[in-house]
Amino acid sequence: MTIGASPHGPGILVIEPMGNAGRFLLEAADRLGLRVYAATHQDVHDGYPDRLRSALAGVCATDLTDTPRALADMETFCRQHAIAGVAACFELFTPLAALLADRVGLPGNDPRLARAARNKVLMGEAFAAAGIPAPRWTVVRDAAEAHRAVRSAGLGRTLVVKPAEQGGSWGVSVVDAGGGVHAAEDGVPDQLASAVAAARQYAYAQPHGLKLDTRALVQEYIPGEEYSCDTVIADGVAYPLPVVRKDTTEGRYRIETGHSCPSGLPPSLARKVQHTAARAALAVGVRHGIAHTEVKIPPGTETPYVIETGARLPGDNLCEVVEAATGVSEAVAYLQAVLGRVPDTVPSVTGAAAIRFLLPARGGVLRQVSIPETPGTHSELHLRPGDSVPEPADSACRIGHVVARAETADRARGLADRVAARSRVEVS
Ligand SMILES: Nc1ncnc2c1ncn2[C@@H]1O[C@H](COP(=O)(O)OP(=O)(O)OP(=O)(O)O)[C@@H](O)[C@H]1O
Ligand SMILES: [Mg+2]
Question: Which of these, 168, 156, 155, lies nearest to 315 by C-alpha position?
Fold first, then answer.
């Protein structure tokens, strides 16, 4: 598809369109006949791929890490270019989008709650205030605090330690409190201390250099299958999107291995997930926009526990997976919501799709990679031979992915798995 800047339609300002969902947002804007402008840093814009740069009608070059300056620059830009809607693509800038929309009088999210969609401490408070089932948690600044908290907070034996602000599973560890709490006495490696250090390692988010909250959360571990569900919200009204099953690695690092849609949940439980996701989105102030919510359902229960929500389109090519399975374009619906229109979330096809990520067994240098071409699938490489491959501790280690379409989710997942199994990945 050729994406061209449409000269006549309403203008949308996207705060940092770089990243996985950006391409879907640009395609959607093209379908809706919208002009798309980017708000970003000059040096980040200089590094945009040609495909992204050429699709833009213009750029508001500013410093997104300096909120007063960014708001002033973007406000002037919005007025000069008759901007009709503000969208965010990068999770860490979703609060900025809410503040800008409020300032220029465009449809947006509640600016008073907006940081709760980015910061997991505020998010936990918002979920508790709204009575939304979520893991119990405590916030810590170092290992000693974590040990004390674990002894007193009764969070259970298996714990999740994660950064207050980050994404892509960066710095998230699942640890056994039994192996580490009494480390000083019994010589067992202090898993909790290393997990807290991992969660606190990110002081700034690149490429913008945004300062992050370096506190860590220690959470109760929620067992069970994991799902995600996106919710478009227009004028405070929730329009649930399909539930997607999420597969991850086991063990200390939970990295997505794939997603599939439909979820395979019985319809009544899928509706519960949609309802819970909508409540989570509203709890963090989403009013005109979209939220991506992740839940786990403990075995033997029908209660979705919310792991997190973000006021943004999903990553991981989920826009493609959901559209292939249902015909619904999440990005179109999101843009409609930020323009104050009724979002089109009615499924038009009954199909299934799955994505499977190619992950390395360990870090190193990518020597060879090939994914066989297979009917019903298409694939993409994220890394090339010669590139360094990070340790498989977060989603940065992905080498590529396969998307498969079929009549049922099981078949789509099976097809994507078979292609992944026949792929050749050599890391040394
Ligand atoms: N309390 C928890 N109980 C069980 N599993 C959890 C919990 N918190 C996180 N996880 C697992 O770790 C994964 C990553 O955690 P989380 O979503 O909080 O971090 P993130 O960096 O925002 O992730 P991403 O951007 O990859 O979705 C979750 O998808 C889930 O599989
Ligand atoms: Mg997550």
Answer: 168
CA distance 285 to 354: 30
Q: Ligand 1 pocket test: which of 169, 173, 222, 230 has the largest number of ligand atoms within 8 Å of its C-beta?
A: 169
Distance 311 CA to ligand 2 centre (A): 12
Is the distance from the beta carbon of residue 265 to the nearest atom of ligand 1 less than 6 Å? no
pTM confidence score: 0.95
Amino acid identity at 246 = K
Helices (DSSP H) in 57-142: which residue ranges?
Answer: 67-80, 94-104, 120-130
Nearest residue CA, atom 22 of ligand 1? 167
Measured distance CA(69)–CA(80) in Å, rounded: 17
- Domain's final residue, options 293, 326, 350: 350
- Domain count for the chain, please give it: 4
Residues 102, 60 share a domain: yes
Percent over 70 (pLDDT), the chain: 96
Distance 317 CA to ligand 2 centre (A): 14
* Residue at 137: amino acid letter: W
Residue-number span of the structural domain to which 253 is assigned: 222-350
Per-residue pLDDT at 19:
84
